[in-house]
Write a structure and sequence with these properties.
Elements (H helix, E strand, L loop, with lengths): L3 H8 L1 H9 L9 H6 L5 H7 L7 H10 L6 H4 L10 H4 L25 E3 L2 E5 L2 E5 L18 H4 L5 H10 L5 E5 L8 H12 L6 E6 L1 H4 L6 H8 L4 E7 L8 H11 L4 E7 L8 H13 L2 E7 L14 H14 L7 E4 L8 E2 H4 L3
Bound molecules: pyridoxal-5'-phosphate (PLP) and iron/sulfur cluster.
Pyridoxal-5'-phosphate (PLP) binds next to β2 and β3.
């Protein structure tokens, strides 16, 4: 096996030097260490969660296609001995992933065609999406980017071309940092990147799409808060949380710290069978998010990525769930139910997709 530090080094060279330059107190592991120590072996996962060995063969086979990765903070929120735990389902490689379906592809939303420059997607008017890294703190089984050829883009090394593209198109007012997960970058790398974006006069807003505050709350460290505090652009952070159990005290604290930096916090969820396809869960999620200063933004109908078909909720059921949710919640807590469609210049409300 490749040593973990070497693996990190491959993806994020800048992170390693910071780790060594700034070694953390012994009982308070740095987020880099937490990330490096994320659980990657299906056998250990099953053992730590007291789950049956009968799940192992499938977990190893599915994990060979898209690897298991789960940080300790996430693991701690999973109920032991419960194979249907909603947080477990999101990360455990499962037998269902090995089935293939012709409706599900390796590039479900046409990202490859929308590539404007290496690592840059320009699909929507006024907004570009910059893929900063292929790395994530956690690997979600339904991820629509699980087959994305990140290495083709080798991201940050090709940043100058992406920034040139943004510079020469003055219709671009918003830059969205995505990935992977942009918070996998070190604080200094992020600061540098944001600094470069800020030099482009027509860019007014910065948006960060990240699952890290939920998956690895330790990442919201003093250095990151300092970086975010000094951003001059109007800044929005869109977190990704699917189930109220993902929001424990540590996550709520991280979110509250982010709010204090003046960021607008929004959440996007993916509607997932066996995880959150339930009106009470979704209602509870919106309310719990709001209590942490986060507004529900989107509820995504699953992108049809190969290996994720078992998470799909049929459109008619999704619309019925959303209608029921509307009855329970004030309008400002109701996320918009959307589907991303190939070649369409905005996320489409599912009700519109399904209109006869
Ligand atoms: C979802 C997405 C956006 C942002 O869409 P909003 O509706 O503004 O949240 C931008 N670019 C791409 C490629 C996207 O997939
Ligand atoms: S954090 Fe986001 S990009 Fe990363 S695996 Fe999960 S869904 Fe995919």
């Amino acid at each position: 096996m490749i040593p973990k530090t070497a693996e990190l080094l491959q993806i994020l060279p800048s992170q390693i030097s910071e780790t060594t330059a700034n070694s953390p107190p012994k009982d308070d592991k740095s987020w880099q260490q937490q990330q490096a120590d994320a659980l990657r072996e299906p056998a250990r996962l099953l053992q730590q969660l007291a789950l049956p060995d009968s799940l192992l063969a499938a977990a190893e086979a599915a994990g060979a296609r898209f690897s298991l990765r789960v940080p300790a903070a996430w693991l701690a929120r999973i109920e032991k001995g419960n194979p249907t735990d909603p947080l477990l389902r999101q990360i455990l490689p499962a037998a269902e992933e090995l089935r293939s379906s012709t409706a599900f592809s390796t590039d479900p939303v046409g990202d490859r065609a929308a590539r404007a420059a290496p690592g840059l997607l320009h699909k929507y008017q006024g907004r570009v999406l910059l893929m900063t890294t292929g790395a994530c703190a956690i690997h979600c089984r339904y991820c629509f980017r699980r087959h994305y050829p990140y290495s083709d883009d080798s991201l940050l090394t090709q940043l100058p071309a992406a920034l040139d593209y943004i510079r020469t198109d003055n219709s671009i007012h918003e830059v969205i940092l995505s990935g992977g997960d942009p918070l996998s970058l070190s604080n200094s790398r992020l600061a540098q990147l944001i600094q470069q974006i800020q030099t482009i006069a027509h860019v007014k807003r910065l948006r960060i799409h990240t699952r890290t505050p939920v998956a690895l709350p330790e990442r919201i460290d003093a250095g990151l808060l300092e970086v975010l505090n000094t951003v001059k652009l109007q800044s929005v952070m869109v977190i990704h949380c699917n189930h109220p159990e993902e929001l424990d005290e540590q996550v709520l604290e991280a979110l509250s710290a982010l709010r204090q930096c003046g960021l607008t916090l929004l959440n996007q969820s993916v509607l997932l069978k066996g995880v959150n396809d339930n009106v009470d869960i979704l209602s509870h999620l919106s309310q719990r998010l709001f209590s942490a200063g986060v507004l529900a933004y989107y509820l995504h109908q699953l992108d049809r990525v190969e290996g994720a078909q078992h998470f799909e909720v049929p459109d008619t059921e999704a619309i019925a769930l959303h209608d029921a949710l509307r009855q329970q919640l004030p309008g400002y807590l109701l996320p918009e139910l959307v589907r991303e469609q190939r070649g369409v210049g905005a996320k489409t409300p599912l009700q519109e997709v399904c209109r006869p």
